[in-house]
Amino acid sequence: MDSQLGHAIYEEFDTVVILREQLRVTDPVWHDFLTHLRYGRVEEHHLALLREQIIGRPNSPSTDFNSAPWNAASLVTPKT
Question: How far is CA 74 from CA 20, 22, 33, 42, 47, in A?
Answer without folding.
Answer: 10, 15, 25, 29, 26
